[in-house]
Design a protein that fits this description.
The protein is an all-alpha fold. It contains 18 helices and no strands. The protein is globular, with a radius of gyration of 21 Å.
Length: about 450
């Protein structure tokens, strides 16, 4: 009996992937890591920035969320279309260079609105990475290796987020005791965070643009007209709607925890920024990396046991764990307990990411992948990256009215979003099973 090729799977090719393909993944992972260092180092600088610019939690959260996301979501579809029609390596290279420059400009900001504008620049440039990188990887790996390759790439956010906290905290402490001209300690941290991106640009020149996937007759797939792209989305609408919305709930936790856990640990338990950066940053790095690597492995185990749509079961498990851990955080009575729940949450919200990304690539035709990835980034950015930090801040400022109880705001936000995700992702799994069966 023959089996149908999954929708959007690349044409048959060699069973393995050469060293060049894995080297490309490593370089793209380094770029992804640097992007999250530049994106999230601000989270450790909450207290210095509040003091410098006299900010409330809500205004500070707009730097974490709206400033970055407003540009990220506008440019994601643009870069998504470019990834389907242009040289993807060059898109990534240009994006890394531009966001590194704007990260340095964050460190040179003299007022709130200059900082806001620099964060807009970081967000616009970082929108280039995901659609181009995902498309490049999908064209270099056979379907059975795609989730593993994606899991390596998706270690970047957790390595980057962890390093931003670890080295950001250590550098902040160093800069507070050693003067760097007229620069404040928080400014030194931003400028230092921009340096690795320049090195990544040099390495990217060595990465070739992958050949596009071919159709069954061996011809390169032609660029898909936009009208046909939208017809493809409409035909698979039940999957895409539930997938995008369901994953957004998990992404709320992915961004809310790193944005506010440092503040939780400092305000509720009186910890120092350097200690929080080292301890929580290490847990984010280890927990997030293990989670994103474990997702595809867990999916394969379930597939061998005969469970249909195994890649889409993994997000359901992640959402369940986020719900329980969010409640646990609100009940934590010590710094150590808070760290444990925060670290386990890093594993839980990273667990679904590679499996879900692999599932999205599998059911999406090649010349739609850039747009599918860009729309995914667009939606989860609006709901997750854009809204998550501000939702927590608004609950703290307007509902609870006590900055020291930000742990409760964080728990309410993430537990609620996880419950919604469970319902939507259950529907997405059903649609995914049908699409794969139809081939």
């Amino acid at each position: 009996m023959t089996t149908k090729k999954p929708i959007g799977a690349p044409a048959p090719r060699q069973e393995g992937a050469g060293w060049g393909a894995w080297a490309m993944v490593v370089v793209l992972t380094l770029a992804y890591t640097v992007s999250f260092i530049d994106r999230q180092v601000l989270n450790l600088l909450v207290e210095p920035l509040k003091a410098e610019f006299d900010l409330s939690d809500t205004r500070l959260s707009l730097l974490q969320g709206l400033a970055f996301t407003s540009a990220y979501i506008v440019f994601s579809p643009i870069f998504g279309r470019m990834a389907d029609t242009s040289n993807r390596r060059n898109i990534v290279l240009g994006g890394v260079a531009v966001w590194s420059i704007f990260t340095a400009l964050c460190g040179l900001a003299r007022n709130y609105w200059q900082m806001f504008g620099a964060r807009v620049g970081v967000g616009a440039a970082e929108a280039s990475l995901t659609p181009a990188a995902w498309s490049m990887i999908a064209d270099r790996f056979p379907p059975h290796l795609l989730p593993r390759a994606m899991s390596i790439l998706l270690m970047g956010p957790y390595i980057g987020g962890g390093l931003a906290l670890i080295f950001g905290g250590l550098l902040l402490e160093f800069a507070e005791t050693n003067r760097f001209g007229s620069l404040e300690a928080w400014q030194v941290v931003f400028i230092a965070a921009a340096v690795p991106g320049i090195l990544i640009c040099a390495i990217l020149f060595l990465v070739p643009e992958p050949a596009r996937s071919t159709d069954a007759g061996g011809a390169a797939e032609a660029a898909m007209p936009l009208a046909e792209v939208w017809r493809g989305f409409s035909a698979r609408g039940k999957f895409y709607f539930n997938f995008y919305a369901g994953m957004s709930g998990i992404v709320i936790a992915l961004y809310a925890f790193p944005a506010w856990m440092p503040a939780v640990l400092m305000r509720k338990f009186g910890a120092e920024a350097a200690s929080v950066g080292l301890h929580y940053g290490t847990l984010v790095l280890i927990g997030g990396s293990l989670g994103v690597l474990a997702g595809p492995t867990l999916g394969r185990i379930m597939e061998r046991k005969g469970l249909q749509g195994s890649l889409m079961i993994v997000p359901l498990l992640g959402a369940s764990a986020i719900f329980l851990l969010s409640i646990g955080l609100a009940l934590a009575g010590s710094y150590e307990a808070g760290l444990i729940f925060g670290g386990l949450a890093s594993f839980a919200y990273s667990l679904p990411m590679a499996a879900a990304s692999g599932a999205l690539q599998i059911v999406t035709p090649n010349r739609m992948r850039g747009m599918a990835s860009a729309i995914y980034v667009f939606i989860v950015s609006v709901i997750g990256l854009g809204a998550a930090p501000t939702i927590v801040a608004l609950i703290t400022d307007l509902v609870i009215g006590d900055e020291a109880r930000v742990d409760q705001s964080l728990a309410i936000t993430c537990a609620g979003s996880a419950l919604v995700s469970l319902i939507l992702l259950r529907n997405a799994r059903r649609a995914y099973i049908r699409l794969v069966a139809e081939g």
